[in-house]
Design goal:
The chain has 4 helices and 4 strands. By secondary structure, it is α+β, with helices and mostly antiparallel strands. It is globular and about 45 Å long. The two termini are 22 Å apart.
Amino acid sequence: MNKALILFSSTLIGIFLIDQSIKALFLEGFRWYGDFFSLILTFNKGVAFSMLAFLEGDLKYIQLALMVGIFVYLLRHKESFQKYSLPAGIIIGAGLSNVYDRFIHGGVVDYFFWHYGFEFAVFNFADVMIDCGVVMILYLSWKKEKIG
C-alpha cells in the first residue's frame, strides 16, 4: 500500500504542477497561431465542449466531490488502489488542476485549439492526461479479464 500511495501522490502532484506551469505561460501572454492548430487562451466554464456550463460556480464543487469519492473508494478497496494508483493519480491530479482553475480563474484555462478541416474544442494538458488515465484503467481492467 505504501508504494501505491507514493506512486499515486507523486503522480498527482507531478501532473498538477506540469499542467499549472503550462497554463501559467498562457496566463502571462504566450500565444501562437498556426495553420493546423493555435495556442490561445480561453476559459471553459463547463466540462468537455462546454457542457454543463449552466451549473456555473456549482460545477467545481461537484467535480471536487467526484474526485474525493474516487479517492475514498480506492482507499477502501486496497487491491484496486494498488492496481490503479498510477492512472488514478493522473486523473485526480489533472482533475484537481482543472478544478483549481475554476476556483482561481472562474473557468478552466484551455489553450490548444485545433482548427484544420474543422474547428475542434479547445483543451489543455490536464484534459489529455485524464483521457490517458481512463485508457490506462480500461487497459488494466481488460488485461485482468483476458488473463484471469
